[in-house]
Amino acid sequence: MRLDKFISKATELSRKESKKIMHAGEITVNDQVVKDPGLHVDVINDEVMWAGEPLSVATGNRYILLYKPEGFECTLKAKEYPIVTELIAVPELGSLRIAGRLDVDTTGALLMSDDGGWLHRVTSPKHEHAKVYELTLASPMDSDAQEKAVRKVAEGILLEGDYEPTKPATLEFIDETHARLTLEQGKYHQVKRMMGYFGNRVTELHRASIGHINLDGLEKGDSRFLTPEEVAKF
């Protein structure tokens, strides 16, 4: 790989900015100062450093779990709020894609990768990877309303604007305003729309897990790479 391209990928500097730091003598390759942007480097075996700090680029696919806090958008370009990739310190953020986006006000497990086939397997209903949501409702639901909701969710609900009912899902009530919903699909605003079907409104929503992946050991805003075993289970 050309050295200027390597630096750009490793730092997110532009190619022009990469050339400037090279011309300033700030880049070494295998302990030698290099100012030639066209020099080809081995991304695995050559040691490239900027002001004494090692640089590296991704040589394979990345699989990342983020504990998304509220106030961040699951988009690639910021609109009204900061974007979730700002919370992750890895190179080449622009190549990451999200498996199952969360609303700005929703917290919880978010999987990202640059492996498109893997992301499809995570999100496709055909693979039946359950997602568990914890929700808070605006209005209390008594035992009769809870029983009706549990039964209807298990049967499938035809939401307004849809042509097919939701896939059977599991709804468990913790108390009159708190519940846990397990889904194997991801329709647009599905959890909120399902609760709206029962005349209620979701005031807080948290995705606790995706498949076998949960947020154990992470705080809001934290992230980690998945292990090879975790990746393979999808």
TrEMBL record:
A biological process term (GO) from this entry: enzyme-directed rRNA pseudouridine synthesis
Keyword DNA-binding attached: no
Cell membrane in keyword set: no
An MF annotation (GO) of this entry: RNA binding
Domain RNA-binding S4: start-end pairs: 1-65
Keywords for the protein's UniProt record, in alphabetical order: Isomerase, RNA-binding
Signal sequence residues: none
Domain of life per record: Bacteria
Function recorded in the entry: Responsible for synthesis of pseudouridine from uracil-516 in 16S ribosomal RNA.
PANTHER family cross-referenced by the UniProt entry: PSEUDOURIDINE SYNTHASE, PSEUDOURIDINE SYNTHASE FAMILY PROTEIN-RELATED
Assigned protein family: Belongs to the pseudouridine synthase RsuA family.
Protein's name according to its UniProt entry: Pseudouridine synthase
Taxonomic source organism: Psychrobacter piscatorii
